[in-house]
């Protein structure tokens, strides 16, 4: 399993000579896999542990790798995170730390159930 990486950039626009952010974090399809910290400070929790992210830093997660991730705001200040993704039809996601599974229908909308399939 590949370790997630944070990437710092002063702007979202790609500049000549700069590496592609998607390539940097190993994205092969879009999915819900890219986040940029706009303001505040958050802790990124992944299978590898905890990492503090600050404004301008990004994190990306290749789809299908099973690296569960979430953002936690442990501070008293608000944080703003820009999350970029798509609504891939029939996409599935499992949340290992809670009893939640989501499956997208043909319209791309996720239906959340318990891991055994029963509704919440």
Structural notes for this entry:
The chain is mainly β. The chain has two domains: 6-86, Jelly Rolls; 87-120, no CATH class. It is 4% helix and 38% strand. The protein is built from one helix and ten strands. It has one helix at 21-25, and strands spanning 6-8, 34-39, 42-46, 49-53, 57-60, 69-72, 80-84, 92-95, 100-104, 110-113. The strands form three sheets. It has a four-stranded antiparallel sheet. It starts with 5 loop residues before the first strand and ends in a 7-residue tail after the last strand.
* Unreliably modeled segments: 1-15
CATH topology name of the largest domain, in short, is Jelly Rolls
| CATH H-level homologous superfamily name of the largest domain | Jelly Rolls
Q: Would you list the SSEs in sequence order as H and E?
A: EHEEEEEEEEE
Please identify the top-level CATH class of the largest domain.
Mainly Beta
Which sheet architecture does the biggest sheet show?
Answer: 4 strands, antiparallel
Please count the beta strands (DSSP E, at least 2 residues each).
10
**Percent helix:** under 10%
Identify the strand order in the major beta sheet. Answer: 1-5-2-7
CATH architecture of the largest domain: Sandwich
Cα-based radius of gyration, to the nearest Å: 15 Å
Mean pLDDT: 75
The rounded distance between the terminal residues' Cα atoms is 31 Å
Bin the strand percentage.
35-45%
Shape designation? globular
Specify the number of helices: 1
**Helix and strand composition category:** mainly beta
Total domain count: 2
């Amino acid at each position: 399993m590949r370790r997630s990486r944070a990437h710092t950039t002063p702007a979202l626009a790609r500049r000549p000579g700069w590496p592609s952010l998607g390539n940097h974090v190993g994205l092969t399809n879009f999915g819900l896999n890219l986040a940029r910290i706009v303001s505040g400070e958050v802790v990124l929790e992944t299978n590898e542990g905890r990492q503090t992210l600050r404004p301008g830093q990004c994190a990306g997660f290749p789809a299908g790798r099973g690296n569960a991730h979430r953002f936690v705001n442990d501070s008293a200040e608000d944080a703003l995170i820009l999350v970029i993704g798509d609504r891939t039809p029939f996409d599935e996601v499992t949340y290992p730390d809670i009893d939640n599974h989501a499956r997208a229908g043909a319209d791309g909308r996720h239906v959340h159930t318990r891991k055994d399939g029963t509704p919440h």
